[in-house]
């Protein structure tokens, strides 16, 4: 986005007091845009101490609340228990934990563990191994009396790169001089460990070339139509795009391969209706590798493209009449294509991609009331209403940007199937648990806006649609939702 041009956004752009010393003094300037670590002598012990500090609070809580954890105590520190966990793997299952623990706390824990490694100068691969090691310590040592949770091991580990890496790249943006307090705040929240290191004079990475960014905060109101009911909502959205390739959108020609986390996007949304949170959404996207090509002249006329392999994370909870819909989907890997057209101050982009997925999905087919007994807890679907599954997804986005008007079309589709046969079993039960459950979600957004010439802000009208379908055996259930709204977006 263009630099702010009014008092409001000049205030947002005011540099913070905690800027780094001059780049020349630290010998930190890299024109290539590629990472280069500062190899401190004590990075291993510092990383280990920070991991222990991160692991200590939940460990203390866990052992001080054994009355709450006791229902999961099925093993001991003995030969037979370790045989189940390490040899036969009979003690390695999907757990029956609540949604907040499995879909929120574990991804956050894994992302921070990963960022501790990255903030100490470790590569994404090394940080992922560190993250996995911490997850193993928790599952096999701290929770030694419990069955090992497949989903916790997986979620903690893959959350590192999928969630922690794009947030880490946002955190590094705070290292640059002249960054306004709003971006400094985003950097601190996105990567608190890296920010703490920078403030303490312990930066573990040399300064990259300043990335291309497009940050926007939006506030507005919506009217949600669920078919049988309508409800008004107010909401706030944040959309953060960061592209690390130093050649993106600048004059020149040629093609080059991009490294890890070259193209990044983080989105968040919160909507409130009748004084309560009615919808929460969080998405990340980043790339493994790809090829970026451009042919752009000095007047910024031309085109560019990206073809690569991408990953990301989608989380959403939606309060509906009498029930809740929710999913946490990890996009393991899949192709990504982005095509751009530059015409001076006008920029048109189209992105599309698909992915192989794993995650957690609410079983929509059963509706508000589950037709199963709550106890014994044989599977998370029988107990909590959601399941662990695998699936496929696809997305597309068309965006038109000009100094006067904007337009956007975005669509997403998810298909998930339950993973059966590794659920937690108690007292030989579980034979009647529902199997072969599947869910489909479609969502689409259309937005058109104008820029009234005040601080580069834009006023938008939006139309969103969501379709949900759940299936089990011969039963199917479908619901739809249409949301209309208006919002004001402020770039920063």
What is the secondary structure topology, with strand pairs?
Blueprint: H1 7-12, H2 23-26, H3 43-64, H4 66-69, H5 79-86, E1 92-93, H6 99-119, H7 124-142, E2 148-149, H8 150-172, H9 181-190, H10 192-199, E3 212-225, E4 230-243, E5 252-258, E6 263-273, E7 276-296, E8 301-320, E9 323-343, E10 346-362, H11 380-384, E11 386-401, E12 405-418, E13 437-450, E14 458-472, E15 475-491
Parallel strand pairs: 1-2
Antiparallel strand pairs: 3-4, 3-15, 4-6, 5-7, 6-7, 7-8, 8-9, 9-10, 10-11, 11-12, 12-13, 13-14, 14-15
Helix pairs in contact: 3-6, 6-7, 6-8, 7-8, 8-9, 9-10
What's the Cα radius of gyration? 24 Å
What percentage of amino acids are in beta strands?
A: 35-45%
What is the N-to-C succession of helices and strands?
HHHHHEHHEHHHEEEEEEEEHEEEEE
CATH architecture of the largest domain: Beta Barrel
> Would you tell me the overall average pLDDT?
91
**Total of DSSP H or I helical runs spanning 4+ residues:** 11
* Shape summary: globular
Count of strand segments: 15
Query: What count of structural domains?
Result: 2
The neighbouring-strand order within the major sheet is: 3-4-6-7-8-9-10-11-12-13-14-15
Low-confidence stretches: 1-32
Instruction: Quote the distance from N terminus to C terminus.
Output: 8 Å
- Kindly state the percentage of residues in helix: 25-40%
**How would you characterize the largest beta sheet?**
12 strands, antiparallel, barrel
Determine and state the CATH class of the largest domain: Mainly Beta
Class derived from helix and strand content: alpha+beta
Give me the CATH fold name of the largest domain: Outer membrane phospholipase (ompla), Chain C
């Amino acid at each position: 986005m263009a630099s702010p041009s009014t008092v409001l956004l000049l205030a947002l752009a005011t540099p913070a007091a905690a800027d780094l010393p001059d780049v020349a003094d630290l010998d930190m300037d890299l024109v290539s845009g590629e990472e280069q670590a500062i190899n401190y002598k004590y990075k291993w012990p510092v990383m280990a101490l920070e991991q222990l500090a991160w692991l200590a609070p939940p460990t203390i809580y866990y052992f001080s609340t054994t009355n709450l954890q006791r229902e999961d105590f099925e093993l001991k520190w003995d030969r037979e228990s370790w045989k189940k966990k390490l040899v036969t793997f009979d003690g390695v299952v999907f757990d029956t934990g609540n949604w907040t623990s499995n879909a929120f706390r574990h991804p956050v824990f894994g992302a921070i563990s990963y960022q501790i490694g990255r903030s100490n100068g470790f590569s994404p691969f090394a940080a992922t191994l560190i993250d996995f090691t911490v997850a193993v310590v928790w599952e096999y040592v701290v929770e030694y009396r419990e069955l090992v949770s497949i989903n916790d091991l997986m979620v903690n580990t893959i959350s590192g790169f999928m969630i922690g890496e794009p947030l880490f790249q946002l955190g590094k943006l705070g290292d640059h001089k002249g960054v306004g307090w709003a971006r400094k705040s985003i950097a601190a929240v996105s990567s608190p460990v890296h920010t703490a290191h920078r403030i303490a004079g312990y930066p573990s990475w040399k300064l990259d070339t300043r990335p291309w960014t497009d940050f926007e905060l939006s506030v507005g109101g919506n009217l949600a139509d669920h078919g049988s009911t309508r409800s008004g909502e107010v909401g706030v959205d944040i959309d953060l795009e960061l592209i690390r390739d130093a050649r993106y959108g600048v004059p020149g020609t040629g093609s080059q391969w991009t490294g890890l986390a070259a193209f990044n996007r983080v989105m968040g949304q919160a909507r409130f209706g009748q004084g309560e949170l009615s919808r929460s959404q969080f998405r990340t996207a980043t790339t493994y590798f790809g090829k970026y090509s451009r042919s752009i002249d000095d007047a910024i006329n031309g085109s560019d493209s990206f073809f690569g392999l991408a990953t990301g994370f989608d989380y959403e909870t939606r309060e509906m009449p009498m029930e809740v819909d929710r999913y946490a989907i990890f996009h393991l890997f899949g192709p990504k294509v982005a095509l751009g057209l530059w015409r001076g101050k006008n920029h048109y982009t189209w992105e599309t991609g698909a992915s192989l997925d794993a995650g957690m999905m609410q079983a929509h087919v059963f509706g508000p009331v589950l037709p199963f007994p709550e106890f014994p807890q044989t599977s998370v679907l029988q107990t909590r209403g959601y399941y662990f599954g695998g699936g496929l997804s696809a997305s597309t986005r068309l965006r038109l940007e000009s100094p006067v008007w904007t337009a956007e079309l975005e669509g997403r589709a998810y298909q998930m199937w339950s993973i059966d046969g590794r659920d937690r079993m108690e007292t030989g039960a579980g034979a009647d648990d529902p199997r072969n459950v599947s869910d489909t979600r479609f969502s689409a957004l259309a937005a058109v806006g104008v820029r009234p010439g005040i601080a580069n802000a834009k006023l938008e009208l939006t139309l969103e649609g969501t379709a949900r379908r759940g299936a089990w055996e011969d039963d199917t259930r479908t619901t739809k939702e249409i949301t209309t709204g208006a919002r004001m977006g402020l770039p920063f």
